[in-house]
């Protein structure tokens, strides 16, 4: 574990194989942290430097009370400054769900830095203004409930939404690990993440997908129909995109089948 002060915020990262020359950066999803990547990193070769970042409002990174610090623009610039501190010129970037949206936003803005982009169950945002407005309203309402009712009430509801239905078939110990990670988050961090960089407020990137020139791997779970369709459409807009649909899993492939996900990372990036 290492901490850096970046743009006035304490940022927590985990690093493995620091002396290796090839680097992969991992960005977790909403309610996640660096912990979510440990089972993946443990299966990667020791000649790869792996860096997992706690995004703003999550894990051991700062969770400021001001929503401006959670905008997608601020998150991208915070990461860019962090990568400068870490002396990263070029690297591969892996992002899951919310972290995938952050990774994609970063790659669009700083494409020269990215050797390979791997997006797991990610999207470029919502095209339609009305859709965006409805989603923003839903996210704002959820944010208010998180703050009003507390983290345990939220986590109990969140782990039972349809998006995570496939996780109910995971071993009890794995389900408990996921719950523990979610329970360690702060109310204000999660609430402001929804308000500042939720799907309803992030600048949509559909029109910029065709500017990506690095190899892009899109990964979705067979039991996650919505994101399969999104990623099929994304692939049509990206010059060097490959879309992998993983059998018998849902939204969080790296959690539901970590061995398969680690194999994908090894085969596509390393």
> What distance separates the N and C termini?
23 Å
Strand order of the largest sheet: 1-2-4-3-5-6-7-8
Percent helix among the residues?
A: 40-55%
Report the radius of gyration as a whole number of Å. 17 Å
According to DSSP, the number of beta strands is: 8
CATH topology name, in short, is Rossmann fold
Mass-distribution shape: globular
CATH structural architecture: 3-Layer(aba) Sandwich
Low-confidence stretches: none
The CATH homologous superfamily is termed Alpha/Beta hydrolase fold, catalytic domain
Q: What percentage of the residues does DSSP assign to strands (E)?
A: 15-25%
Name of the top-level CATH class: Alpha Beta
Helices and strands, in order, run as EEEHEHEHEHHHHEHEHH
Mean pLDDT: 97
Class computed from helices, strands and strand pairing: alpha/beta
Tally of individual helices: 10
- In this structure, how is the largest beta sheet organized? 8 strands, mixed
Family: Belongs to the AB hydrolase superfamily. MenH family.
Subunit structure: Monomer.
Domain AB hydrolase-1: 23-258
EC number: 4.2.99.20
């Amino acid at each position: 574990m290492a901490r850096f002060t970046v743009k006035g915020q304490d940022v927590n990262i985990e690093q493995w194989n620091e002396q290796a020359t090839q680097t992969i950066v991992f960005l977790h999803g909403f309610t996640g942290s660096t912990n979510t990547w440990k089972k993946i990193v443990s299966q990667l070769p020791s000649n790869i430097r792996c860096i997992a970042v706690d995004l703003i409002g999550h894990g051991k990174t700062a969770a400021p009370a001001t929503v401006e610090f959670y905008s997608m623009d601020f998150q991208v610039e915070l990461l860019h400054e962090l990568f400068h501190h870490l002396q990263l010129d070029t690297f591969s970037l892996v992002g899951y769900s919310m972290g995938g949206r952050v990774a994609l936003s970063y790659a669009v803005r700083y494409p020269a830095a990215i050797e390979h982009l791997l997006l797991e169950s990610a999207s470029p945002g919502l095209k339609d203004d009305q859709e965006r407005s409805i989603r923003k309203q839903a996210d704002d309402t959820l944010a208010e409930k998180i703050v009003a009712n507390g983290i345990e009430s939220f986590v109990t509801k969140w782990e039972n939404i349809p998006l995570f239905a496939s996780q109910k078939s995971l071993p009890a110990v794995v389900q408990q690990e996921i719950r523990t990670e979610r329970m360690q988050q702060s109310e204000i961090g999660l609430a402001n993440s929804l308000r500042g960089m939720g799907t309803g407020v992030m600048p949509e990137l559909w029109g910029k997908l065709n500017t990506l020139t690095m190899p892009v791997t899109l990964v979705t779970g067979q039991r996650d129909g919505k994101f399969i369709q999104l990623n099929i459409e994304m692939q049509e807009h990206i010059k060097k995109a490959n879309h992998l649909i993983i059998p018998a899993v849902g939204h969080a492939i790296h959690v539901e089948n970590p061995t398969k996900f680690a194999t994908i990372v090894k085969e596509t990036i390393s």
